[in-house]
Amino acid sequence: MIKDNVLLALKNIRNRGLRSWLTMLGIFIGIAAVVSLISLGSGLQSAITGQFSSIDPDKLTITNAETGFGPPGSTAIKKLNSHDFDLIESVNGVDLVIQRIIRVVEVNYNDISKFKYIANLPEDEEQIKVIYDTLNVKIIEGRLLTKNDRRKVVLGNDFLDKDEFGKEVRLGKTINIQGTDFEVIGFLDKAGTFTINSVILMPDEDMRKILDIKKDEYDILIAQVKDQDKLQEVKEQIEKTFRDDRNLKIGEEDFSVQTPEQGIQTINTILVIINLVIGGIAAISLLVGAIGIANTMYTSVLERTKEIGVIKAIGAKNSDVLSLFLIESALLGLAGGIIGSIIGLSLAFSVAYIVQSTFPGLNFAVKISYPLIFLSIIFSLIIGTIAGAFPARQASKLKPVDALRK
Amino acid sequence: MKSLIDLKSVFKYYKMGESIVKAVDGIDIKINQGDFVAIMGPSGSGKSTTMNLVGSLDLATKGDIYLDGKNIEHLEESDLAQIRGKKIGFIFQQFNLIPNLTAKENIMLPMLFQGVDEFDREIRAEELLKLVKLEDRKDHYPNQLSGGQQQRVAIARALANNPDVILADEPTGNLDTATGEMVMSFLEELNKKGKTIIMVTHDPNLAKEHARTIYWMKDGKVSKTTFGKKYSKNKKIPISKRRR
Fold first, then answer.
1. Are A216 and A81 in contact (CB under 8 A)?
2. Taking the C-alpha atoms of A24, A25, A26 and A32 in order, what is their torsion angle to the nearest 10 degrees?
3. Which of B52, B77, B157 sits opposite A314 (nearest CB)?
4. pLDDT tens, A22-71?
């Protein structure tokens, strides 16, 4: 009986071709939005978290004022100096302070000029090691810089791409940075973050020379904490020391001490907001979809009033008519859900493909969640059923004689 | 003789705005098993309302209607549906086939509502298609069939659950004379096999030609009862004992 009703409902849906598709549109836009976003969401999250994985959990990043996520040094902010360096080093619980300079430079090779990130490598052996560990860099060709190297650079993996400068940069070749020639002694392995893939690592002394940076001027100071559990405590201590030193009250800070979690949390908050907004849009779409189904079912009841009269005359009970219409609207919802899931997944994969080909270093993957897809389909089935309930009830309550008169 | 259908002082009033329309205004009709009845009358005489009441498509305002000894005026809609499906076959002027379903599927539909399984439904439908000589049209949709063919499918559908009574509302109203004759001969054939036929028509010749008992209705009342041509000469009405 159920099987027969399903077949009858399918015939009705097929018979109304275009209208059935339009009815399902509302449902499948909503479901497609939900499925694609949630599938992408986890990929987005891991990709973004990956960008921050270069910061170890036992390190605090100190900058002057809020520099956000843009390249430090690009804004006219008072630089950190050796006094600040000493202040941090004096704070209890700080194991080691590392100074970083990260800038953008003009690179010339094969008569092509490009702007690239450049990062300094400190002179202290221990600090170099910490930086290598922190950035999690691995050499793929040649070797890493050591403290005695001068006029030599190590390049990110992107430089191996021959599209970058018309031809491949090779080991031992000379590359011109800000008008000075440097020998290429190594290439980094492909990393999860695109900043590392396109970076130039240069000895501190050389970098200060070519960019005319004073000896005691730093973009970022990184404090390595002895006890990771006391990260928050040390952070507050550094903040207090800086405030006292600069005569500032709480809330007036012209510097920032960031824990690694803070960066990730900021991104996560943004992600949550994006997800909520899109979830809201999806919910509206689903609501519109449900109204669409209800509308179609009402029209269908009106159109088929006579048919309802006929099937009642030939022995259909109210419950038969009710189930016929309910099954029909449930099937509309179900089909909308299935199509929506397929479209949502294809959308997610296309977006992931585009992102991946734009930022090859990024670890951006779609995560297919089968429970999610299952739930989406069940959800749209339920929406279809609910939307069809009232029209179906109306159809079943029609008096056969009135229905036949139409 | 056993009466299959018994209407006992039946009234059906409609409210139309302020006024009350007395569609059926107190009728008593007894229809015997195996009879071929025509309900005659001009439009507005109450003949269609009477048929709807007999077919349990509508409930009377007052009075009792017995079908096979059971008073159908006090039944729930779902019980009425069962009775309609099992005991009554409807034939309409507009054929009223379901447009999405093929000829065969239309014939199978009434059996579906009686819970007959698919295999038996198919066999029965094939059988009925043969009876109305439409085996070669079984997979055609109603809009691919002529009026006469559609009415034959409707007859087959009416017979699907092997009902006692066939209710035909102007069965030839939408057909040309020749096709109409063919449909009528099918009904006569069924009557000979023992089915009780109740036909509503406004065409006196059709009624006189084919029916045995003719009820003439006027203003919601039965004004006279006569007998059809084939039976008027001998008052003793022969009714076939052979059923089915």
1. yes
2. 110
3. B157
4. 878 877 888 888 888 777 776 776 666 666 555 567 788 888 875 444 45
| Residues A147 and A206 grouped into a single domain | yes
A2 touches chain B (CB under 8 A): no
Q: Is A27 on the interface with B (CB under 8 A)?
A: no
Strand pairing category for A102-109 and A174-177: antiparallel
Q: Which of A220, A240, A260 is the last residue of a domain?
A: A260
pLDDT digits (tens, 9 = 90+) for B134-177: 999 999 999 999 988 999 999 999 999 999 999 999 888 888 88
Query: Do residues A74 and A40 both lie within one domain?
Result: no
Better pLDDT: B231 or B19: B19
- What ipTM was estimated for this complex? 0.87
Residue A188 and residue A305 share a domain: no
Chain B residues with CB-CB distance to A320 below 8 A: 81, 113
**Closest Cβ–Cβ partner in A4, A315, A399 for B110:** A315
Residue A6 CB: number of other CB atoms within 10 A? Answer: 16
Q: What pTM did the predictor assign?
A: 0.66
Write out chain A residues lying below 8 Å of B113, CB-based. 311, 314-317, 320
Q: Please name every residue paired with B11 in a beta bridge, in sequence order, or none if there are none.
A: B25, B62
Secondary structure of residue B86 in the 3-state scheme: helix
Instruction: Write out the residue range of the structural domain in which residue A304 sits.
Output: 2-51+265-405
Statement to judge: residues A29 and A172 lie in one domain = no
Task: Give the residue from A2, A312, A314, A404 with the most B CB atoms within 10 Å of its CB, the best one to mutate.
Answer: A314
Domain boundary pick from A226, A260, A294? A260
Shared-domain flag, residues A321 and A390: yes
Does residue A344 sit in the same domain as residue A293?
yes
Eight-class DSSP state of A138: -
Does residue A224 share a domain with residue A137?
Answer: yes
**pLDDT, chain B, mean:** 87
Quote the minimal CA–CA distance from B19 to chain A in Å: 19
From residue B72, how far is each of A28, B7, B64 by CA, in Å?
48, 10, 8
Chain B touched by A319 (CB under 8 Å): yes
The verdict on A241 and A288 lying in the same domain is no
Q: Do A315 and B58 touch (CB under 8 A)?
A: no
Residue A249: Cβ-neighbour burial (10 angstroms; 0-12, 13-18, 19+): exposed
Nearest to B86 among A15, A313, A315 (CB): A315
Residue in chain B nearest A7 by alpha carbon: B101
Domain count, chain A: 2
Flag if A314 and B86 touch (Cβ within 8 Å): no
Q: Which residues of A touch B52 (CB under 8 A)?
A: 401
Residues of A within 8 A of B162 (CB-CB) are: none
